[in-house]
Amino acid sequence: MRAELTVLEAGTLTTVQDEGRVGFAHLGVPRAGALDAPAAALANRLVGNGPGAALLEVTLGGLQARLSVGRWVAVTGAPVPVLVDDRAVGHDRAEWVPAGATVRLGTPRAGVRSYVAVSGGIAVDPVLGSRSTDTLAGVGPPVVAAGQVLPVGAPGDAPRPHDTPRPRPTGPLRVTPGPRADWFDGDVVTALCRTTYTVSADSNRIGLRLDGLPLTRLRTDELPSEGMVLGAVQVPPSGTPVVFLADHPPTGGYPVVAVVDADDLWQCAQLRPGDAVTFTPGRPPGAPRGPRR
Amino acid sequence: MLIPPGAPHPFPAVDQTGPVRTRPVGPRALLAEVADAGTALALAEWARGVGVAAGEIVPGAATVLFDEVAEPESLREALAGWTPAVAPAQRGVAEIAVRYDGPDLAFVAEVWGTDVAGVVERHSAVEYVAAFCGFAPGFAYLQGLAGELAVPRLDSPRPRVPAGAVALAGAWCGIYPTASPGGWRILGSTDAVLWDQARDEPALLPPGTRVRFVPA
After folding, report:
1. Fewer CB atoms inside 10 Å of the end CB: C or N, chain A?
2. β-sheet bridge partners, residue A71
3. Contacts of A128 in chain B (CB under 8 A)
4. What is the CATH number of domain B21-80?
């Protein structure tokens, strides 16, 4: 029996993701990869996959899929009711799903993106070293659609169904200065950190778009195209910031005033339209990475 | 098609005096500011050549982004002393066959003070260099046109520019790898495949590639 996952319903947006493709930005290729990286890593760990295995990123639930073979499955990220056939199973833990059984995700109670890992991983062909779908430029496998049959790899390590996930602290997004803070009036990082923004409905995998008090630009000329990083807080002419997420364009022409700490980016993956967002000054350059104090 | 490197070519002017200025981009990245796109390309090629430890080295119009840098402070010091003394490695010339049948030929002719034949002649007389990529995978910003031949973008972008459109914006030339919205002035079209993710080198025109347009 060939190991595969047949997608019955794909929900609003389901994509295959892994750790993304690094090293191709100079060719115009976005990095892609799971938006909530710690949740994706947990899901893989729970089912015994390596950290680079591909899984499904499910936006606002709604996925239904049937496995042709028995596999461990774990659902992490946005907490969502999960049924295996008609049996309710837990979040953040590995569940054995027998051959022919259907996994159904309801609607998340909070957050946006849930991760569904299957032992063996989703084994679509990698593109430029990654199985991630990039929604900006279309690199990688297509967006998951109902009727699609996804190959599943051979399981490797034994699953770790008793991994105890640590609670993830939420809070203001920590920022360090970006390269173009001097395009703005006064201390723009302080202004950014004093403002409460709300998440705009047109946020997506490319960027977390924010509504709120606009930042005042001193210069209105066009910035010659320059490289952009994950977490860049870019300010378009409207003055309201956009936090660049995994599918961001590799180069851009709007000034970047700050950069969100990599350890806080997962929060951007789970914020819903209308949620409040604040920023706070983060660790200085050179300080070691570590858990939030 | 790619032709092996041969005769020296008019590499874009490298006009860098004084140390390279770097700006912090969060804790793990640096943006190096240089004089122009030619210098940015030279710096990026140098950094790849010497194996600078960075996850991404991304040339731009007048910058090079170094992302996922293990030791930003030592990279900053290394960059401060860099000068574009050594000519960057030369890549082959890509010859692109163009049908000059684009909707903006007459507009460009007017801006350039010539006729359509004059546009074709001037556009195909230049050797370009892919300075950097952006906008879409495989979309190279081609440098080579003289500054006085700069043309303005469309006031409102076309909703769909076909793949293979050869177009101008400012003094840049570019070829659309896939159909997309776009505001560049379209001179013509090519059947060249700019981006094929199944190829070993998916981009036809990675930064540093020299480019010639041949009227089809």
Report:
1. C
2. A97
3. 197, 202
4. 3.30.1360.40
What are the pLDDT digits (tens) for A193-220? 999 999 999 999 999 999 999 999 888 7
Looking at chain A from residue 167 to 206, which residues have their Cβ under 8 Å from any Cβ of chain B? 176-180
Quick one: closest CA in A to B204, which residue? Answer: A27
Which of the four pLDDT bands, split at 50, 70 and 90, describes residue A164? confident
CB pair distance less than 8 Å for B73 and A286: yes
pTM for the full model? Answer: 0.91
- Pairing type for strands B210-215 and B93-98 reads parallel
Distance, CA of A15 to CA of A12 (rounded, Å): 10
Distance from CA of A262 to the nearest CA of B (A): 9
> From the list A28, A138, A229, which residue is nearest B26 (CB)?
A229
**Distances from the Cα of B8 to the Cα of B44, B126, B173, angstroms:** 20, 14, 22
Domain B93-215 CATH (choose: 3.80.10.10, 3.40.1190.10, 3.30.1540.20, 2.40.100.10): 2.40.100.10
Q: Within a 10 A sphere around the Cβ of A30, how many other Cβ atoms?
A: 30
Mutate to test the interface with B, among A135, A182, A251 (most CBs of B within 10 A): A251
Cβ <8 Å between A137 and B28: no
